[in-house]
Amino acid sequence: MRILFIHQNFPGQFGHLASALAHRGDEVIALRIENRANLAGIKILQYQPSRSNTQNIPPLLLDTESKIIRGESCFIALQKLYKQGYIPDIIYAHPGWGESLFIKDIWPTVPLINFFEFFYKSRGADFGFDPEFPTNSEDLLRLKTKNLVNLMSLELCDAGISPTEWQKSLQPLAYQSKIHVIHDGINTDIAKPNDEFISLKIPSINQTFTSNDEIVTFINRNLEPYRGYHNFIRSIPEIMRERRNVKIIIVGDDRVGYGTTPKFGTWREQFLNEVKSEIDLNRIHFLGKLNYTDLIKTLQISSAHVYLTYPFVLSWSMLDAMSTGCLVIGSNTPPVTEVLKDSFNGLLVDFFSPNDIAKTIIKVLKNPEKFKSIRHQARKSILENYDLKSICLPKQINFLDMIAKK
């Protein structure tokens, strides 16, 4: 089978799938804009935006124009491939940046699968969720226009994939029958518990952590309100008062991935400054970005792992944490509650309550033996529902094969 992947920062969500298809002997080509490491057996093509945004374009059209420019640029790049005689059997794209908008104008009969990650809603999801960051009418109008390309992508594709039921449920009802729920998958052979003594050395901060330490972990790609960083930081004074030897490990970048940017500095600095006079700064450690090996080690030595999020896209890190047997303390928000069941395979807390977050963490740290069964069930839940090799990859491959043969 010939398969074409389109994703601005490929491999992204497609890495495991693309590698598995190449390994079974399929011809795999990927189009991307970012210059990243290549995967064995996969031919990489790159494109660049053909032009910049129009000067003085109305702000409400800026996002849509950016995506149309990217779609046009992909069209130009793939036309060259078409003229060389290339015809894929199936195309799998992430439409979030507009890259798949004009694919059907090159190969009208080739099945197109789109990966539908999120559809913006004015109620019931991330928008307006956090009263600390109020929205206005301009934000609402911008939200509506952000869905223009999403709607076109839903209409143009032959089928879609969403990683969770929650993310599928956000899509317009008229298109949901096109979308199948298949998660990207967690490599449970790597993200797994380790009962042996573990030592994690972080040269950048000249610190070594071990599995004998009492450690609370918080991990996200970016430290920002969308992922509850502000409410976690506010829980730390109470945790440190009650647990004199606890160490707080926070992993994440200072950039903003979602939501508004801070008026000054970074969100990390802004919310740390709120509580710094109430905490022991020697016991809070910001590790920045970690490679995956050290990330898993961090989870393996965790005494309690906190994952908070707006009703938004579910992070891989929460599933990685469950797979390593962490005691995950998660926010009582979708899509967390789709995976994490309170007192069964994790503990749920009020996203907006630093006090609830702190008390739950303290309860876990005081009596870790009491929660062993929950850790075991967390690992079991991932093995049974999100395991990469036995569940998610076979589902993805079977789905692509089925759509290609239609």
Count of distinct structural domains: 2
Element-by-element helix/strand order: EHEEHEEHEHEEEEHEHEHEHEHEHHH
CATH domain fold name of the largest domain: Rossmann fold
Give the amount of beta strand, in percent.
15-25%
| Helix proportion range | 25-40%
CATH class of the largest domain: Alpha Beta
Largest sheet properties: 7 strands, parallel
Structural class per helix/strand content? alpha/beta
**Poorly predicted tracts of residues:** none
Second-tier CATH architecture of the largest domain:
3-Layer(aba) Sandwich
Q: Which superfamily, in CATH terms, is the homologous superfamily of the largest domain?
A: Glycogen Phosphorylase B
- State the shape: globular
Radius of gyration: 22 Å
Distance between the termini: 13 Å
Mean pLDDT: 96
Q: Order of strands across the widest beta sheet?
A: 3-2-1-4-5-6-7
Please report the number of helical segments: 12
Q: How many beta-strand runs?
A: 15
SSE topology:
Layout: E1 2-6, H1 15-23, E2 27-32, E3 42-46, H2 59-83, E4 90-93, E5 112-115, H3 137-156, E6 159-162, H4 165-169, E7 179-181, E8 199-202, E9 207-210, E10 215-222, H5 229-242, E11 247-253, H6 267-275, E12 284-288, H7 292-300, E13 304-307, H8 316-323, E14 328-331, H9 336-339, E15 347-349, H10 354-366, H11 372-385, H12 388-405
Parallel strand pairs: 1-2, 1-4, 2-3, 4-5, 5-6, 6-7, 10-11, 10-13, 11-12, 13-14, 14-15
Antiparallel strand pairs: 8-9
Helix pairs in contact: 1-12, 2-3, 5-6, 5-10
Model description:
It is a single chain. Helix 2 (59-83) runs parallel beside helix 3 and helix 5 packs parallel to helix 6. The chain has 12 helices and 15 strands. It has helices at residues 15-23, 59-83, 137-156, 165-169, 229-242, 267-275, 292-300, 316-323, 336-339, 354-366, 372-385, 388-405; strands at residues 2-6, 27-32, 42-46, 90-93, 112-115, 159-162, 179-181, 199-202, 207-210, 215-222, 247-253, 284-288, 304-307, 328-331, 347-349. By secondary structure, it is of the alpha/beta class. It has 2 domains: 2-185 and 388-405, Rossmann fold, CATH 3.40.50.2000; 199-385, Glycogen Phosphorylase B (Rossmann fold).
